[in-house]
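Fold description:
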Amino acid sequence: MNVSSQYSASTLLFAGVDSLPVALTKAAPTASAVGPLKVGIVCNPKSHLNRGAQYAAGVPGADSVLVAAPRTRTALAETLATFAARRIDLLVIDGGDGTVRDVLTCAEHLWKGVWPDIVVIPSGKTNALAIDLGIPTGWTLSDALAATARGRRVERRPVEVARSDGSRPLRGFLFGAGAFVKATELAQHTHRAGAFNGVAVGLALCWAVLQTMFGGAGSAWRKGSSMGLRLPGGGDPDQRPRYLLLASALRSLPLGLKPFGRPRDGMKLLAIDAPPRLLPITAPALLAGSESPWMARMGFHHLDAASFEVTLDDGFILDGEHFDGGTLSVRQGPVLSFVVP
């Protein structure tokens, strides 16, 4: 399955809602606490805790509110184009990491240079971006409007994944390949068992480490995946089996895990050679943020790069969704301003 067809499938998560119409709904104007404010809300009705029906009834603290629950990729793009034409001040994304990815991907050509401020209402099964931004689970749009009035904002840059065929690049906040694909599949099972957010991430991670440690020399977890990695200014891709490849511009991850080392801005990479060595020792050190030279000698490589190229025989994960592999250009996306508590 190619990226564009998989993307279409992922946006169908917006289907099947009766609480909101497909078209934009104009909420009743209310007194604003922050001056004239035009708000556009994209609600994923299948997100774990979405509040879509509440928005359609009116949003206190905003002068003009447009609410939409798009059912398809085309409808999502049309919704965002309408928001851009109306010159919204605030783009609200009610959903999880996958909803944020879909919105940023569909809107890549609409707000070149000057994006509206963005509010994330964390209502998905995993909300890594919201955790990084310090947004609590119970955060509401009223809370966000009050934070907007106080000028509470931070900047983040998504990871942009592009192919050479000219198809629309994907935008998200956590890119992973190799064992990360298998670990994400395990996380989906924990969701069905009722575990969400950091709990799901922790359970999947623990299971992945155990599978790797006790799977034996021929284990699919240990043998890794063939990857060709080329950094800016490099020559031919460094082709070798790798256990895992991660990239993100987030400063922190759920459960306080620090696979990229010390918190810092910019896009960070973690590349682990296959098979991973001395996991009972290296795994705890890695997740605690160690960047010691001995980790690199064991095949755990921390890198900082604004862009890189990777060739994957297998697929990759971007914010919880699986996409086909191939030759990819991975780079930093635009600077985005997020409203935070």
The longest strand covers residues 238-248. The domain at 174-318 is CATH 2.60.200 (Tumour Suppressor Smad4).
